[in-house]
Write a sequence for this structure.
DNA sequence: ACTTTATGTCAGCCTTGTTGACTTTCCAAG
DNA sequence: CTTGGAAAGTCAACAAGGCTGACATAAAGT
């Protein structure tokens, strides 16, 4: 019920706050919706050929990013139940794309790795997705990319932000 | 197979193209993934209370954006089958959130409107989503917001971009 | 009169999410 | 050494929301 009627035009210090109007926010919401569709479109096509879905892509992506990650760690990144993830991982292991090694320190844990075949599919999928991202970044320019990432980071839940920031070039 | 080994460091005209490295692209991909989760988290919680899902939210959003829109138009925006959309619309009409009026010029068409109850839910949902978007925009600043939108627009499929650009403040 | 378009609907299938219950393995504290 | 609890796997059942295919109806267009 606060600032309803769409025109916070000027802030208290006189900056233009036009970018915070209801209409601008709606535009941002729709941008997310439409862009996410594009973002997933190319991998979805490839996955379909293999009989996999987005859930498989997500698992493959994060196993590739952090080889040897445990099931539990993957669960907290993906935010699904272990039953859901297990179904996906079982398929990937059975099909020989993922290897599940019993932990050495803690033998309850399973450490996940992509096989060569898994890496090949990962490259296929992420190259398709990167191609679109690359084109978008190039057309928009480096400053836009910085803004893109700044806004997205702010949109994440804190726990997701931690996972996101984890993924820096450290291994 | 083109520019594989992650370092297109400098472009032909000498600009820094560091923002186009494989790693930067992967970061962008993960930003989209994690941010989209945050983007949908708040409405998802509200929808659950009403026994609805994201599909209902999307229908409600675009009916609100363009009152009187036809089923066909909604189909092309949402990119689902009429059977899928119909299931959702039927529920919303039965529950009295959406009104479906036979067209006057073309009586085959159904024009869709939110009822007062529908508008109330729409406000609930979009206010939750806007609150997060507003915070993200405010923390990131106007220039970042411009970049955010520029990149997302580039990421859309052309048809989706048209729908996105349609939604300018003209009604 | 015939064709096309817009919509609705029925039936059935798949993926991917959920909960709940149960087992096995195994580290670690008592 | 025993036991509690964490990590993992598995089974069953269910729901949302995608999909395809087939078919019905009304109205518009040719």
């Amino acid at each position: 019920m606060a600032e309803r009627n769409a025109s916070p035009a000027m802030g208290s210090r006189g900056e233009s706050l036009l970018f915070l109007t209801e209409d601008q926010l709606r535009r941002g919401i729709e941008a997310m919706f439409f862009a996410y569709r594009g973002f997933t479109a190319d991998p979805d096509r490839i996955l379909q050929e293999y009989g996999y879905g987005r859930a498989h892509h997500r698992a493959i992506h994060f196993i590739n990013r952090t080889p040897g990650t445990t099931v539990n760690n993957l669960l907290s990144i993906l935010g699904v139940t272990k039953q859901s993830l297990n179904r996906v991982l079982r398929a990937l292991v059975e099909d020989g794309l993922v290897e599940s090694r019993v932990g050495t320190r803690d033998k309850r844990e399973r450490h996940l790795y992509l096989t060569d075949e898994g890496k090949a599919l990962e490259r296929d999928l992420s190259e398709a997705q990167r191609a679109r991202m690359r084109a978008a970044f190039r057309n928009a320019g480096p400053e836009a990319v910085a803004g893109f990432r700044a806004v997205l980071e702010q949109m994440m839940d804190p726990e997701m932000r931690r996972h996101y920031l984890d993924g820096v070039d450290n291994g």
User: Anything to note?
Assistant: Strands of chain A lie at 69-70, 98-102, 110-114.
